[in-house]
């Protein structure tokens, strides 16, 4: 009651500052937890590098890039996108685990901004995700991938990847709040793989049946992959008669990110608050 009265006495700017301060505190909490459990951090960082080696050399010897070009250079933007969207399941598991172990209940009992909890969790995820992208980029350089368009487009590509990861982390936050526990969240993991594979990440969509190609081309993973290929200057940049998100991938990624944030940020915050009633 005292906390509610204190919040009611704050201005909108004051509430925002309070939420941001508590959110940064929770980001620190998530990072300190990773320091105490280094195995989790190491696994999340090694996985992207393993994906580069596995897909680059296994698929690289069997798939020809339409129009010519190195398959590993074609592949790397797809792997960047796949790891970016893996934030959905990572956040779902993390939030569901905290909820089932009573961590969320302890947060609600503390004098802190209610919105700070999901903001803190998604904020920590973007930091670990950035480290994962960095390690994957190093692994890509070792297997022959290069960014050919210079520093600025390369920075823009990684900025788009981080923006999309932050947006989809809110999807995972919402899913983690609505599932019952981490066991239920774990059962959702097999559903994630088809979502990322049904795209242009690993193979062109030209050879797919019409209905399947439609789904793949409108998949946000395809827009993210196409945007990364264009900004990195990698092979098989989409041209011709293709859907709008793939023909204008940078704008498509920005639009997808805004839509996901507009939908899932309020949904996550509202769900978190309702569960505390």
Structure description:
The protein has 277 residues and is mainly α. The protein has one domain (13-275). It contains 14 helices and no strands. The chain has helices at 2-8, 12-36, 38-58, 71-85, 87-100, 103-108, 116-143, 151-178, 182-187, 189-197, 210-217, 220-232, 244-247, 249-275. The radius of gyration is 20 Å and the shape is globular.
In short:
The protein has 277 residues and is mainly alpha-helical. It has one domain.
Number of helices: 14
Radius of gyration: 20 Å
Oligomer: single chain
Bulk shape: globular
β-strand amount:
under 5%
Q: Main beta sheet: strand number and arrangement?
A: none
- The total number of structural domains is 1
Write the SSE topology.
Layout: H1 2-8, H2 12-36, H3 38-58, H4 71-85, H5 87-100, H6 103-108, H7 116-143, H8 151-178, H9 182-187, H10 189-197, H11 210-217, H12 220-232, H13 244-247, H14 249-275
Question: Key terms for this structure?
Answer:
single chain, 277 residues, mainly alpha, 14 helices, 76% helix, disordered N terminus
């Amino acid at each position: 009651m005292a906390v509610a009265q204190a919040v009611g006495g704050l201005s909108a700017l004051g509430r925002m500052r309070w939420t941001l301060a508590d959110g940064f505190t929770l980001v620190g909490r998530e990072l300190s937890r990773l320091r105490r459990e280094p195995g989790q951090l190491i696994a999340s960082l090694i996985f992207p590098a393993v994906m580069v080696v596995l897909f680059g050399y296994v698929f690289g010897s069997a798939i020809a890039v339409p129009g010519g070009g190195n398959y590993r250079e074609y592949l790397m933007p797809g792997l960047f996108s796949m790891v970016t969207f893996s934030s959905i399941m990572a956040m779902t598991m993390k939030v569901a685990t905290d909820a089932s172990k009573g961590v969320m209940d302890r947060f609600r009992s503390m004098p802190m901004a209610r919105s700070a909890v999901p903001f803190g969790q998604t904020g920590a995820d973007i930091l670990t995700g950035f480290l994962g992208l960095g390690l994957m980029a190093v692994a890509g350089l070792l297997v022959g991938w290069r960014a050919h368009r210079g520093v600025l487009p390369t920075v823009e590509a990684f900025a788009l990847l981080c923006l999309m990861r932050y947006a989809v982390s809110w999807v995972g936050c919402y899913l983690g709040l609505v599932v019952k526990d981490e066991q239920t969240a774990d059962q959702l993991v097999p559903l994630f793989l088809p979502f990322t594979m049904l795209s242009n990440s690993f193979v062109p969509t030209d050879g797919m049946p019409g209905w399947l190609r439609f789904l793949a081309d409108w998949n946000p993973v395809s827009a993210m992959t196409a945007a990364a290929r264009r900004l990195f200057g990698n092979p098989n940049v989409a041209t011709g008669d293709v859907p709008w998100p793939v023909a204008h991938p940078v704008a498509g990624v920005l639009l997808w990110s805004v839509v996901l944030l507009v939908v899932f940020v309020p949904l996550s915050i509202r769900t978190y608050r309702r569960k505390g009633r």
